[in-house]
What we know:
Blueprint: H1 2-27, E1 44-49, E2 52-57, E3 69-72, H2 90-96, E4 101-106, H3 118-137, E5 142-147, H4 149-160, E6 165-171, H5 183-189, H6 193-203, H7 208-218, H8 220-233, H9 240-251, H10 259-271, E7 281-282, E8 285-286, E9 296-301, H11 309-312, H12 315-318, E10 324-329, H13 335-338, H14 340-356
Parallel strand pairs: 3-4, 3-5, 5-6, 6-9, 9-10
Antiparallel strand pairs: 1-2, 2-4, 7-8
Amino acid sequence: MLELLNELPQYFMEGAIRSLDGFRRGLSDCYPMEDDPPPNNPYSVIYEGGKVRLRHYRARGLVRRETPLLMVYALIKRPFILDLMPGRSVVETMINSGFEVYMIDWIPPSRADSWRGFDAYVNQDIDNAVRAVQLREGVEQISLLGYCFGGMLSTMYTALHQDVIKNFIPLTLPLDMSVREIPLNSLLDRITDETLDLITKVYGNCPASIMKAGFTSMSPVHHALDKYVGLYRNKQSKGYAEMFDLFEHWMNNDVPLAGQIFRELANDIGKKNLLAQSRFVAGGNRVELKDINCPVLNVVAQWDDVVDPKSSLPFIDLISSRDKANVVFPTGHVGAVVSSAAQKKLWPQVATWLGDHDA
């Protein structure tokens, strides 16, 4: 215990430097994407347009699947958490299972992009990415996987463009925003229209520093102390220190959120809960959840402290799919993609499900 107390100041100092560096990046109008760590698995960029840079990871393994998989990540952090390191990579599991994997690497918005709302990101950017995958692979339908905020974007896209989606996997989907167990949802109630207008008038977009403050407030003890105790206790474990550094890098890589989508997220989805009620409108079209009729595997993290499971679980009751299921895995929000248990059990299960629905 004494040794831990002696080493904690060093850990705190290193954490403070990371946080300050992340804050500096968050104030930049042209967010420095080159700050990402080197990729764990090689990829090529096959399309760039709007706010999308589309990555392609080539399939490996003995069996090549017919249906490509497009991953849609959240807008508010960098996507390397899905391909963190060997043995801790969703991308790696999928390409080793024979899937051609594509990932949307969102280009952070500048002030000139403050007009961008859900319509632009869903009906333009994701739609263009899907078309790029269709053309490259010579297919009419793809499988779609969306993580957290990316799951919300993917849900909207699937409801509005069901004909091109063969299988859909929402992962830790924030859907029912009437669930108030998560502090961030309660925080939205306290953001007035005047505050939203002030933020977007001053900055154009919602600065990354504000997004980071919201996430830090959800688990302040973990951000301040618990993670360093965990690092100390596991510092001799093979690969743990490397994973900790990569994870901290990701935690401090918050990205600005375009002004219009920030307003829509706070008001229409956060406060009014329009998406869960099939009343949200994107591009003049109502997002009707019942229009989703493809096979759906809804992956929920049992101990999620970012998206409460009760916010995700109702999804399959609101869609028309006959082939649908909830998978509740005993992990947290980020553990669902980086924990060793998820890599050994959850993602092979997801790959098997996709394989069964490939033909």
